[in-house]
Amino acid sequence: MSSHAQQARTLVEALPYIQKFTGKTIVVKYGGNAMISDKLRRAVMCDIILLSLVGIRVVVVHGGGPEISEMLKKIGHESRFVDGLRYTDAETMDVVQSVLCGKVNKNLVAQLNRLGGQAIGLCGMDGQLFQAEQLDEKYGLVGRITNVNPAPVENALSNGYIPVVSTVAQGVDADTAYNINADTAAAKLAAALGAEKLILLTDVRGLLRNPKDEETLIHVVHTYDVPGLVAQGVISGGMIPKMECSVDAIAGGVERVHILDGRIPHSILIELLSDEGIGTMLKKED
């Protein structure tokens, strides 16, 4: 088949998906390798702009772990982790806030704008988007979200912007900012926005039945399967919190959660606008 015919087929295949999702809200949690590699970052940005141009309301929620670690190293402050979460003392919190709400957020916004998108940056403290209380003293200034006010994001969307959100929250129990896990924040925001989908970009193929074999990708998981898969050890390590917040998002009204491999260029477009899903999709019982 000629490449033109192939292109036409691809577009025809995408059409029903575009019709289905146009006007709907999709939240993309962006982090990991897809954020570090220039080539992958560009592919993610182009996907987000394309979705936005066909009328899909895309919200980007980002992390920035590597950039935070790098900045802490520059100022000679050691990164410490407790149960996989960054221990956040006051000095670390200052760095988290300036790196996430400042450098990382604005760089993403600028890059989207340069590629022809219309992006606007928001941090969890803007318009009280995320309010939080301390999760547990052992993690320091790490917060648990107590309230989400989606209005700033809604306003940006209705004005045609792509909101880019960093996950620092305003403390309600103390005069401080809190560091929030980006997966959790994305799940809570997706529920508050009544999003159709939440997409978590990760550095794995999705959920694998055997973590050492990429061919054992589980394409569809129902929320009621999750406890059993945790018990069997299929969902383990860093996948546990991802799955937990995915289940919460669905309980909060999000239709589908996709765990996608951010190392595959254009994985978002392939997952959303083609017949072949490539990651793990989580949904409620049929």
Total strands: 14
Order of helices and strands: HEHHEHEEHEEEHEEEHEEHHEHE
Radius of gyration of CA atoms, rounded to a whole number: 19 Å
Q: What global shape is seen? A: globular
Give the strand line-up of the largest sheet. Answer: 5-8-2-1-11-13-14-12
Structure description:
It is globular, with a radius of gyration of 19 Å. The protein is built from ten helices and 14 strands. It has helices at about 5-20, 35, 40-55, 65-75, 90-115, 150-160, 180-195, 225-230, 240-250, 265-275, and strands spanning about 25-30, 55-60, 80, 85, 120-125, 130-135, 145-150, 160-165, 170, 175-180, 195-200, 220, 255-260, 280-285. Helices cover about 40% and strands about 20% of the residues. An eight-stranded mixed beta sheet has the order 5-8-2-1-11-13-14-12, sandwiched between helices. A four-stranded mixed beta sheet has the order 7-6-9-10. Strands 3-4 form a two-stranded antiparallel sheet. The protein is an alpha/beta fold.
